[in-house]
Amino acid sequence: MNAQHSKPTRRDALDNRQRILVVAREALAEAGGTSLTAIARRAGVGIGTLYRHFPTREALIVELYRHDIQHLIDLAPALAASRPPLEALREWFEEVARYGRLKYGVAEVIHAAASGGLDDEYYGPFVRAIAVLLDAGAAEGSLKEGLDPEDVLLQLSVLWRLDPERGGEARAARILDLIVDGLRRPLPGTADGTA
Q: pLDDT per residue over 9-54, tens digit each?
């Protein structure tokens, strides 16, 4: 059989799928309306290859959503185990902000998928991921005790409303500073702490 006409191996197919996801994440974060043809071109695959993996634009976006949310869920305990609590929290928040840039560009598709129960699947694990980070900080003494992870999630939700093309990245950094400052345990002798 001629090597040029041989069927791609499973490894090739998995590599193509991964490359499409990486390129799509970047392209959609830059411009939410990026076409599938442009994504295929940037990924170095034919449009037929892209459609074999993701038959619709919505299927591609939902797969990115699932992948990114699961990454954030898995990242929280890893950071809590390997970094000081405030550093872990801030690094995790920055990852959430990066995700927010993707979600901004494709929010309408994600909201449509979420109405079908997609958000329900990830909501509890995502809230528990936040709780892991908050509990580590409270136990260590750098964060207030009794913080509600759902309240923190609500604060973070502003990140996917920031337009990346209108200073969203800088604004996200300022908002994260405000959120982290609000979660910190006040130092004794300060206006908010005990003397």
A: 688 888 889 999 999 988 887 777 788 999 999 999 999 999 999 9
Strand partners, 129: none
- The structure's pTM equals 0.77
What distances in angstroms separate CA 43 from CA 10, 22, 25, 38, 93, one per listed residue? 18, 8, 11, 9, 29
Measured between alpha carbons, how far is 50 from 57 in angstroms, rounded to an integer? 10
Give the three-state DSSP class for 143. strand
**Burial label, 155 (beta-carbon count in 10 A; 0-12, 13-18, 19+):** middle
Segment (H or E) for 180: helix 168-183
What's the rounded Cα separation, in Å, for the pair 24 and 65?
11
CA distance 159 to 61: 18
Determine if residue 117 is left, alpha or beta; phi over 0 gives left, psi from -120 to 50 gives alpha, anything else beta: left
